[in-house]
Amino acid sequence: MPEVYFHVRWPDGVSRRFYSPSTVIEDYLRVGGEYGLGDFLERSRTALDVASDRVAAVYGFPCGRATATAAALDDLAARMPADAAVLVERFDR
User: Fold this and answer.
1) What sign has the CA pseudo-torsion 42, 44, 47, 51?
2) Contact residues for 71 (Cβ-Cβ < 8 A; gap 6+)
3) CA 91 – CA 84 distance, rounded (Å)
4) 86: which residues sit within 8 A by CB, 6+ positions away?
5) Tens of pLDDT along 53-88?
6) Residue ranges per domain, the chain?
7) Residue 23 carries which DSSP code?
8) Exposed, middle or buried by CB within 10 Å (0-12, 13-18, 19+), for 17?
9) In a 10 Å sphere around its CB, with 0-12 CB exposed, 13-18 middle and 19+ buried, how is residue 58 labelled?
């Protein structure tokens, strides 16, 4: 599976890198896209769930790193204002 790292600038101005086990993340987020926090979390979680399911189909078990990424996104989002927006800066393969 082609791994992808996606870089996100948070409302506090800090850019962070996150892991996806599949390029499917690019179907849900676009470079330069600015998303409300709730929308971003929903899109990211959906993409990471799909990616983890793809891993399970190939290897017989879901991707723990995708689950960890979703948890990290939730943790960071909990520290941001609910009406904040995030910016997707780039994807790295």
Assistant:
1) negative
2) none
3) 22
4) 8, 9, 10, 11, 34, 35, 37, 40
5) 999 999 999 999 999 999 999 999 999 998 999 999
6) 4-92
7) T
8) exposed
9) exposed
Single pTM value for the model: 0.94
Q: H helices of the chain, where? A: 25-28, 37-59, 64-78
Greatest CA separation found in the chain?
Answer: 39
* Backbone dihedral angles phi then psi of residue 42, each to the nearest 5 degrees: -65, -45
Other residues' Cβ atoms within 10 Å of the Cβ of residue 40: 23
CA distance 49 to 86: 20
Place of tokens 């991707």: 63
Rounded alpha-carbon distances, angstroms, from residue 75 to 6, 68, 78, 91: 17, 10, 5, 21
Structure-token pair, residue 33: 């896209």
The predicted structure's pLDDT at residue 2: 87
